Amino acid sequence: MFCPNCGNQMKEGAVFCSNCGYRKESSVSNGASFNLNKIPFVPILCMVAIVVLVMIGYNAFNNRTCRYCTNKVYKQGLCRDHYT
Ligand SMILES: [Zn+2]
Ligand SMILES: [Zn+2]
What we know:
Elements: H1 25-38, H2 41-62
Bound molecules: zinc ion (2 copies).
The site of one zinc ion (ZN) has 8 residues, from loops.
């Protein structure tokens, strides 16, 4: 195939023209859509997972019960009745 910009012969499957640096349009759009769809998706998924884990941990912490009864924990694993 030949570069549409300068006419230099390009390697088959080459993204850039080695002579003038021209970018093939189809490769650019494919690369852009890949970058937009795939790359930020993983950090967002990680953030969602972290938020869910933090919320579960927060709820577990708040919903702890006294080690001697089923009352809500007041301090140091004990409810108000058992904490002295
Ligand atoms: Zn070129
Ligand atoms: Zn208690």
